[in-house]
Amino acid sequence: MSQNEHIECLIIGSGPAGYTAAIYAARADMKPVMYEGMQPGGQLTITTEVENYPGFPHGVQGPEMMNMFKEQATRLGADVRYGMATAVDFSNRPFKVTIDESKVVEAQTVIIATGASAKWLGIPSEQRLNTRGVSACAVCDGFFFRGKDVAIVGGGDTACEEASYLAKLCNKVYMIVRKESFRASKAMQQRVSTTPNIEILYNTETDEILGEDKVSGARLRNNKTNELREIAISGFFVAIGHHPNTDIFKGWIDLDEQGYIKTVPGSSRTNIAGVFACGDAQDKIYRQAITAAGSGCMAALDAERFLAAQ
Q1: Residues 153, 142: contact at Cβ < 8 Å?
Q2: How far apart are CA 289 and CA 284, in angstroms?
Q3: Host domain of residue 183
Q4: CB of 15 within 8 A of CB of 245?
Q5: CATH number of the CATH domain containing 190
Q6: Which of 220, 238, 256 is the last residue of a domain?
């Protein structure tokens, strides 16, 4: 046997998409091998309570849920390993994938489930209070701030959508916009500017998020006058975009201008036969655990059919 390990189905990345792909691939006897990546379990491991995933009537902690997904995948026969794909060669099959810059594995099919990472402001209090009132997902966490005052940072469509969503649940929503206008579409700007409980603060940046063990307020800076003001809030949402974790696939896989993987509509197929993509690495619209899991199922089924046709 050559020094390279030969794998029928290689899954790069974990999280709901990757683990679901592993569950389906294992049941189809594809002997999947998964490398979990830098953040085993993906974005859900930095979420606290998950209340919108069916089957958990009392909610579940994000990390606990990902452990359950992983346990199910391994029980069914998936080989889940710690390690990170650092380079790929998709020029011909079997595909070559380098793990941790040292080991090369060869795979007949590859499922990409590398996810996306939220972009953060980069202030220390943001990480310290993450999951204690600081969140990058209003749809995931807005419910916990029902009837309270919150702030959201961002000037694009996502920020406007999330502000509108929060306005239905919260008493008041401060929108912190760095420039003197939105980047968002006219329709989205219209929606937030006509919502009575959204207050838009233009030319404003976050100096500090306040609070010891949970968010109690924010100190804001007007970037024209340099004037500081404090607002009392219970929740602080960051909506300045996500960065898909797809850099190693550049030049091999077709990506859109933001770096998300392009898949054939209604499937998980990429421009390379035998390479499939699922979860947030290819979905910039829904970005939910359940849609990621569904696309992981699609990727495993697509990979199974691809192998059967060979």
Answers
A1: no
A2: 13
A3: 120-238
A4: no
A5: 3.50.50.60
A6: 238
Q: Is 89 among the catalytic positions?
A: no
3-state DSSP assignment of residue 140: helix
- The number of domains in the chain is 2
Regarding whether 131 and 44 lie in a shared domain, the answer is no
pLDDT in tens, 56-98: 999 998 899 999 999 999 999 999 999 999 999 999 999 999 9
Determine which one of 9, 79, 100, 141 is catalytic: 141
Q: Residues 75, 134: one domain?
A: no
Selecting among 9, 137, 160, 170, the annotated active-site residue is 137
Is 9 assigned a catalytic role?
Answer: no
CA atoms within 13 A on the CB side of 52: 15
List pLDDT tens digits, range 199-212.
Answer: 999 999 999 999 99
Residues 224 and 261 in one domain: no
